[in-house]
Write a structure and sequence with these properties.
alpha+beta; Heat Shock Protein 90; five-stranded antiparallel beta sheet; five-stranded mixed beta sheet; 12 strands; about 55% helix
Length: about 425
């Protein structure tokens, strides 16, 4: 969810809750004020009746007016009613309908007799006023919510535009190009600080990239030179004179160690290039044809170990470096052959969703969490433990996913596109 959407949702929800609570409180307050005013009017009518009884020693005539009624009821001599207010129904004679009303009931004493006095007033005007105020409150609430929505939709979107421009420039930033992240002046200090920080970070990254690229090139060149010198000196030593068997064994071990060192150098430099995106340009590759080519290259090794090869290959095109695609397939297939058992089997499946390479082996299941870590290998393996780590780096570079499973004696490596 975008920040603007999250802010709008929280702002609208908070505003709606506050306005609803405010509206309810406002409605209750207005209703209470109008009811209190009507009660005071009823008390005034009560005082007028008591004054009339004192002055004229008789009850006023019962009244049935448009919005008010007065009725009397003779009580027992010792029965007296305390003043009380209550809601009631008020029958409007003119409009011939029942309306909501408010009544006051009390008692007066006349000629040693108590009389119940009931004064009723229509509440229809008060209720109409409350409803009118309530409708106005709802209209104002809706207008305010719509205004907030429009402000958040257009004004805030315009305010946040420099942020999205900076974000798009960061997405388009290419570390291999000389251009940095261009800054766009805004009137908002926070966005200016953000752009300054992004520009400085881009400059530092490009500087580190150039230094790393220089180091990688120099290291590759400098390490290959002494390895080549060692190999040439060993060749001269072999051609100089016949060697004793013990000397031949030592030289063979040196050859083997130098070869491992050369492969280790190549693998580590390749990992550094992949991690820092120092790879050739991408192109559209037919992965099915490339798998077939690699299987033909390994045909002799497969035949020597009497491995049964099963393949189900469909046409699948990917956009990646051909050099890295070749290394990925080489590592997966050579791993399946090298760790296979005599007379075992290899199954290669390729479809639009995944590439699966499974093989039998005498070795137990690998640790799924550590299988793709650098220098992780089985105790019986003669490799350096970098093949699967390189495969994982290549797969991650192109946003694929690689996973390992062990099922019914098969080591299964799955590359999910």
């Amino acid at each position: 969810m975008r920040l603007a959407q999250r802010y709008n949702r929280a702002n609208m929800l908070t505003s709606l809750v506050i306005l609803v609570i405010t509206g309810v409180v406002y409605y209750v307050a207005i209703h209470f004020i109008l009811t209190d005013k009507m009660d005071r009017d009823l008390v005034i009518e009560e005082k007028e009746i008591e004054a009339y009884v004192r002055n004229y020693n008789k009850l006023p005539s019962p009244g049935d007016f448009l919005h008010q009624k007065v009725t009397y009821l003779k009580l027992n001599a010792d029965h007296k009613i305390e003043r009380d207010f209550f809601y009631s129904d008020f029958y409007n004679e003119e409009e011939q309908k029942t309306e909501p009303g408010r009544s006051l009931v009390t008692s007066v004493r006349l000629n040693n007799h108590n009389y119940q006095v009931t004064i009723s007033k229509s509440r229809v005007e008060s209720e109409d006023l409350v409803q009118f105020i309530f409708l106005i409150t709802i209209a104002v609430t809706i207008l305010l919510l719509v205004s907030l929505f429009l402000i958040n939709r257009f004004v805030l979107q315009r305010i946040w535009q420099p942020f999205y421009d900076t974000l798009n420039r960061m997405k388009a930033f290419n570390i291999a190009q000389n251009e940095g992240v261009k800054m766009q002046e805004t009137k908002i200090d926070e966005f200016n600080e953000l752009q300054t920080a992004v520009s400085g970070m881009a400059d530092r990254v490009k500087k580190d990239y150039r230094e790393l690229k220089t180091f990688t090139d120099n290291a590759s060149h400098e390490m290959r030179t002494p390895l080549a010198v060692i190999n040439s000196k060993l060749d001269l030593l072999l051609q100089d004179k016949p060697l004793e068997p013990s000397q031949a064994v030592l030289i063979d071990e040196i050859y083997h160690a130098v070869g491992r060192l050369g492969r280790l150098n190549t693998s580590l430099l390749l990992l550094a290039k992949i991690e820092n995106n120092l790879i050739p340009e991408q192109e559209k590759i037919s992965l099915g044809k490339l798998v077939q080519q690699k299987l033909k290259q390994f045909q002799e090794l497969i035949h020597n170990k009497q491995i049964a090869l099963e393949q189900q290959l469909e046409d699948k095109e990917v956009i990646m470096s051909r050099y890295l695609a070749d290394i990925l397939l080489n590592n997966l297939l050579s791993n399946a052959i090298r760790h296979n058992e005599m007379g075992g089997r290899i199954h290669v499946t390729l479809n639009d969703k995944e590439l699966v390479v499974s093989n039998t082996s005498k070795e137990p299941a690998l640790d799924g969490q550590l299988a793709f870590e650098r220098f992780y290998k089985a105790s019986s393996s003669e490799g350096m433990g970098l093949g699967l780590a390189i495969a994982k780096q290549i797969v991650g570079l192109y946003h694929f996913h690689i996973e390992y499973n062990y099922h019914q004696g098969l080591h299964i490596f799955r590359v999910i596109f």
